[in-house]
Amino acid sequence: MVLLLDLLTTASMLFVVTAGLMMIFGVMKIVNFAHGALLTMGGYAAFVVTQLQLSPWLSWPLAFATGVVVGAAVEYFIVRPLYKRPLDAILATWGLGIVIGQLIVMAFGREVKFADTPLQGTWAILGVDYSAYRLLLIPVAFGLCALLSGLLNGTRFGVKTRAVIMNEELASGLGIHSGRIRFITFSLGAGLGTLAGTLITPLSSVDPGMGLPWLVSAFMLVMVSGHSMLSLMLTCLVFGTCQVLVSTYASPVLGGMTLALLAALTLRIRPEGFARG
Amino acid sequence: MKSIQTLIRVGTVAAAASIAFSSHAADPIRIGVAVGLSGANSVVAPAVVQSSQLAVDQINAGGGILGRQIQLEIVDDASGAIGAQKAFDTLVFEKKVDAVIAMETSAARNAALPVIARGKVPYIYTSFYEGRSCNNWMYVNGWVPEQQVAPVVNYFIKAKNAKTYFLVGSDYSFGRGMLDFTKKYIEQNGGKVVGEEYLPMDGSDWTAVVSKIRSVKPDALISATAGGAPNVSLAKQLKGAGLNLPYGNLAIDEGTAKTMGDVATGLFMSASYLTSIDTPENKKFVGDLGKKFGGDLKTPNELSEPQFEAFHLYKAAVEKAGSTDSAKVIKALGEVSFNGPRGPVSMNKSRHTPLSMRLGQVQSDGSIKILETFANVDPGAQCPNIK
Asked: How far apart are the first and last CA of chain B?
């Protein structure tokens, strides 16, 4: 029973930290390597909220808003000129990640910080006492998945976005402002990144390097999953399951490598990706 | 006329010589400190630098060592092996220091030791570590597993009646080394290790480990993770899972425990130095630091206090030897003692130091209450081949 909950919560965590990266990669074919730094920013948003003695729940909207603003600025000044040069964009966002990390060190220092948890304690579910916050992450992840799928598949914005993905010139010819679509998508993706940072804070420490291990997992997941949020969710479920099973029945050290190994294998066997039709 | 000139000339030479001589007598003693001003150690480095400066100020204000002032040479080692090698090269061969007093990670210490041996400079290693590093030119005044593990395990056996133990660590030399020793120690004392799990150093997802602990239901948990972040994520996830068994942490420092807030409450730790040690020597140490650095004060810790102590031990050794001659000082370092914040210390056991170990428990306000002091815990025969 515990195992099932471990699987679900791990998959949810993976989905939450990957969604923002997916958003940007899916629409713009740019891997945003500053995603790790955005996660870290989210952690510090939670820390700031704790310092101001506000309700920890406020860290969620604050983190999202911060991410959107930073994302908007980054898109406008750094990423916009690089759409035609995806490799340079990787370099630029990686460098940006380092810069954001150093700014955080300058502002908050290197030490481990502590942020309050919005939800403490355990819930009894199916006969076990399980971490309430981890359980909360399950509906959050599925809700986020539904919301983002709805946005991309069921709204006017989604239609325009898909038009830009498929044929940017034609879309522009039809009067779709492709630059604005990219701008909004990038900001939204960045906001999701910082939100994810806040969401994982109750399970991790707040320090300048907190986002990096997650960035690696998120990158793997985005590479092997398809374009849609649903396929990402599926990938997270399958890969998260493997990770937890290996950690539980073999060793957590091997469990840590499971994602990378599976990703490599998947891309070897199915270069088009795990869940791509 | 000529004789007068000669006289003047001779006089001048004599005067110059006497100036040169007297300036030689007042030549400062240079002590090198290599420390991670950048990189992972930069969290603790400022406290280490401050306690070095305090020690030097105190010694200089008291007339120096053998009438010579101390000059501090601080070099950044970038917290790593390559940086340490460069830093020690600079200190030993360029700045020509008389001694080096420095904490290092184990990898950095191993990289620096050949430089020390080549330059034949006394080196006092001030960090706790996994033990059994030996060099003719090195003394150690931090703890080794033999000293650190016993208080926690003894307390769990005696006060918590713990029979089964679960061990959790980060997958690197310190984590593995500490837990290997802990396992042996528990088994020697009639306990049983029912689980042992490791996570990579940068790992932060303890899901599977926490679930295993829950299913095995041990009487107590002991961890030795990489300092800082893994400690926090493990403690948070344990608490989140509602596990509240006795938990001893072999790798946490006072500062981290403080920032962790209520997540750390109830945690057991073992240390040779805690700021709450209630002795006049410690109160003076903490007070003097406060006076010297005011608002910039970094809380002294398990790495910065031995640093402070080592300067006074070096002073005692040079005074006993009557010179800064390396071989004589090395001999004297094992014979002198200093009554510092941790109590009287003397590096007289196989190049290592018997220490009073404190078992502390983190209180809800973040302070650390000393539950028990184990006096004079022996480091064991760390370096049996060095006399």
From this structure: 65
- The count of C-alpha atoms lying within 13 angstroms of the C-alpha of A170, restricted to the half-sphere facing its C-beta, is 8
Beta carbons of A252 and B199 less than 8 Å apart: yes
The second-level CATH assignment, the architecture, of A2-269 is: Orthogonal Bundle (1.10)
Percent of chain A past pLDDT 90, that is, above it, reads 51
A236: confidence class by pLDDT, cuts 50, 70, 90: very high
Q: Crossing angle for the helix pair B304-321 and B45-61, nearest 10 degrees?
A: 30
Q: At what angle do helices A212-224 and A229-249 cross, to 10 degrees?
A: 120
| pLDDT at A275 (0 to 100) | 62
Q: Enumerate domains of chain B plus CATH numbers.
A: 29-143+276-353 (3.40.50.2300), 146-271 (3.40.50.2300)
Domain positions in chain A:
2-269
Number of Cβ pairs < 8 A linking chain A and chain B:
112
Contact B358, B271 (CB under 8 A): yes
ipTM score assigned to the predicted complex: 0.83
CA distance A198 to chain B (A): 14
Inter-chain contact A117–B240, Cβ cutoff 8 Å? yes
| Structure-block tokens of residue B220 | 């107590």
pTM, to two decimals = 0.82
Q: How much is the pLDDT for B9?
A: 58
Which residues of chain B are at the A interface, by a Cβ-Cβ cutoff of 8 Å?
42-43, 171, 197-200, 202-209, 211-212, 214-215, 228-233, 236-237, 239-242, 255-256, 259-261, 263
Is B99 in a helix, a strand, or coil?
strand
pLDDT of residue A75: 92
More confident residue, A129 or B4: A129
